[in-house]
Design a protein that fits this description.
By secondary structure, the chain is mostly helical. It folds into 2 domains: 35 residues, no CATH class; 60 residues. The protein is built from 5 helices and 2 strands. Strands 1-2 form a two-stranded antiparallel sheet. α3 packs across α4. It is globular. About 18% of the residues have low confidence.
Length: 112
Amino acid sequence: MQPGKCVMLLNALNISSTDYSGWNDGGLDSRRRHNMKIFDYDGKRNITGHDLKRARRDRKLTQDELAATLQAEGIIIDRDSISRIETGRRFVADYELKAFYEMFGNDFTSEF
């Protein structure tokens, strides 16, 4: 994501780029990947894991079956990654989020 788009995203979420209170237990995670700050939100690395788990279970899919289906679509992901996304221990890439939505449709949406 380009720096300008990051600022636009923060603005859309009504988050000041200097206001990180409540993020990662009051502080900003200092790790960096690709010059982007990585942080947790309410102790989780994503806010969609619970929706993914619910949608997957509603369709009676195992984590292995979901991973295999996504792999057939060209998404490189394994069962362990699905598990870590569902428990909030892994970030979700934008292309993965798109694939989840395309697979589950409105069953995957959250109330934000």
